[in-house]
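Worked example 2:
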Amino acid sequence: MATEKVGIYRKYHGPIPTDNSGGPLAKKEWPKKRAHRWVVRWFGSDGKRYGKSFKTRKEATDYAEEKQPDVKNGKGDPAPKISLSDYYREHAELMKGNLAASTLHLHLTTVGLLAESMSWARSLDKITIRDIEKFRAKRLETGISASSANKEIKVLRRIFNLAITRGYLSKDSNPCQDIPMIRVAPKRPRYVRPDDFESMFNQAPDTLWRSLLVTLYTTGVRLREAMHLLWRDVDFESSQLYVTRRSADGLVQAWSPKDHEMRTIPLPQQAISLLATWQSVAPEGCPYVFMEHARWEYYSQQVRSGLWQTGRDLVNNLLRRYKTICRRGGVGPFTLHDLRRSCITNWAKQLPIHVVQQLAGHSDIKTTQRFYLSVQPDDIATARQLQSVIVGGILKLDLTDPKLTHSGQKRVFPGKQARQPKKEPPARQGVI
């Protein structure tokens, strides 16, 4: 059928050139003499004709070859128009429940920043690479770090890919796709040494905090995972801790781990003893392990009255209290996530890397290797000792360079004898 054919045509523009007599040039001479672009045209399922212009014929040909299967299958209609404002609202509705609350908040915040830098009414398909570059430049001018700017570009790249999947953008039209990331030198991961941990542990104000610190330092769970731990997730008999998803049930909020996988983590006896002690004085009826009395009273009232907002932090002010503990212990500055990073580093010294990956809950082993393993002084000492063993045999050789000292042994090449000093000729006898 004619309507299923994607065609390529010249589209002339500018004045018609003239011949030597001053008259208009014959149409057959236009391809060589008149400025033009190449247009790809096709008919949509609604019977309307659509087109797209290109500078070169190769670009038009490549696009036509890509467009032909869509037109043949009745998918040749152009993408529907949608503004940043409408896409923001649609994205919030479609992704609710499909993404973690914090991830969705990051998506919406980044789209909002982009919209404010240009216009909420800007059509999604009119956003160009230049627009994204200008957005990043403005964000850097506000003082954000290069790492934060890279993170925002990655978020926008994901959001525009979703727009392609939803039919709002054509394939390969993501304006963030070809924007390079700013090169950022990696920082050395901070490591909480055992003596640092003992210092902060001694400054913990109560059993709750001592239990929390030991759990984070010995199990490597993420802070949000720790805050969502239930008492039924702690197996006191087998000394294990379970990180798993759960559905909403009464006073328990729906929640899923970051990588959506259940994992089992061993608990040392010190953590078991502290958790048992804390359980004996924890708020009665509270299903959460690390929720104190005042917060439990507030939280339970909010949930029962229907005022609790999904996505809120179960426990607040943790970082402020932790900084106080570190300051009083004379260590740091550390973050709560540094306890997880240090635990993973400790595991890596004794366990295979694939086991460390599973215990840490990483879907990609590269994440474990790049962001969580910290090289410590004892690792440097071990490497130095290994190097000494490898080259230990050279100590048995004569390391003196004969070119630099007269005490060095003279070199003699194979098959050749060392040169002997010349002998003085005998004195001639006088003639009588």
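Residues 2-72 form one domain. The longest strand covers residues 36-43.
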